[in-house]
Design brief:
By secondary structure, the chain is of the alpha+beta class. The protein folds into two domains: 42 residues, no CATH class; 156 residues, L,D-transpeptidase catalytic domain-like (Beta Barrel), CATH 2.40.440.10. 23% of the residues lie in helices and 19% in strands. It has a six-stranded mixed β-sheet with strand order 1-4-3-2-10-5, with helices on both faces. The chain has a four-stranded mixed β-sheet with strand order 6-7-8-9, covered by helices on one side. A hairpin with a 2-residue loop joins strand 3 and strand 4. The longest helix is centred in the N-terminal third of the chain and has 19 residues. The protein is elongated and about 95 Å long.
């Protein structure tokens, strides 16, 4: 494309240059005795080059690249990429990953552990109902649930816990401890958590969860299962 544009510009300059060259003729010879007339100089064409990706876009791509091969318990956290705006979290059950967005911009990706067989984490759109830094389960032997963010009255929540690389909870979404702290620090009551049975990319997960992109069927197995 750049080569084609270069040829076009050069052709335009040649055409304008040829148009400006006088052609010998009797009419021209006769006009040589006439007073000189000021000639208008041809305007050279200006090539407009489209701007490349912005620094913010490149940072988003780099975050997604860094998150491509996370091991269980790992995460990437870049809150400086978007410092204002509404926070939304997207949890992909097949991928066992969570994507955190602020103002529509990706700021974090984390491995998670969702519900095991018989305790499947329900999909849907859940505004956060309650937040507690220190909490203990009312259902499962007073188990600790640090940085608890309640999604349903039936006990489904986000919280810190073990991330073995496969679904292992009783229905909650477990985060690595430090990432649970990070997410807790940027959300508010009524912030939305989307739990989906899709396998999006880091840069499309929010659009998929919102229904702004076609939903993708769960073609791959849930991460860590056979």
């Amino acid at each position: 494309m750049k080569f084609a544009k270069s040829i076009l510009v050069r052709s335009s300059i040649v055409a304008l240059t040829l148009a400006a060259v006088p052609v010998a003729s009797s009419a021209m010879q006769q006009s040589q005795a006439a007073p000189a007339v000021e000639q208008t100089q041809p305007v050279e064409p200006v090539l407009v080059v489209p701007a490349g990706p912005s620094a913010a876009q490149m940072a988003q791509v780099q975050l997604a690249t860094d998150a491509a091969d996370l091991d269980p318990g790992e995460f990437v956290w870049r809150p400086e990429l978007a410092t204002t705006g509404t926070v939304e979290v997207v949890v992909s059950i097949p991928q066992q990953l969570a994507y955190v967005y602020r103002g529509g911009q990706l700021i974090g990706v984390s491995t998670v552990s969702t519900g095991m067989a018989g305790h499947r984490t329900p999909t849907g759109r859940y505004p956060i109902m309650e937040k507690r830094r220190t909490h203990f389960s009312n259902l499962y032997n007073n188990a600790p649930m640090p940085f608890m963010q309640r999604l349903t009255m039936g006990g489904i929540a986000l919280h810190a816990g073990q991330i073995p690389g496969y679904p292992a909870s009783h229905g909650c979404v477990r985060f690595p401890y430090e990432m649970a702290r990070n997410v807790f620090g940027v959300t508010q009551v009524r912030s939305v958590v989307h739990i989906i049975a899709d396998s999006p990319t880091p840069l499309t997960a929010l659009q998929v969860a919102r229904g702004e992109r076609p939903r993708m069927p769960m073609e791959e197995q849930v991460r860590g299962t056979r």
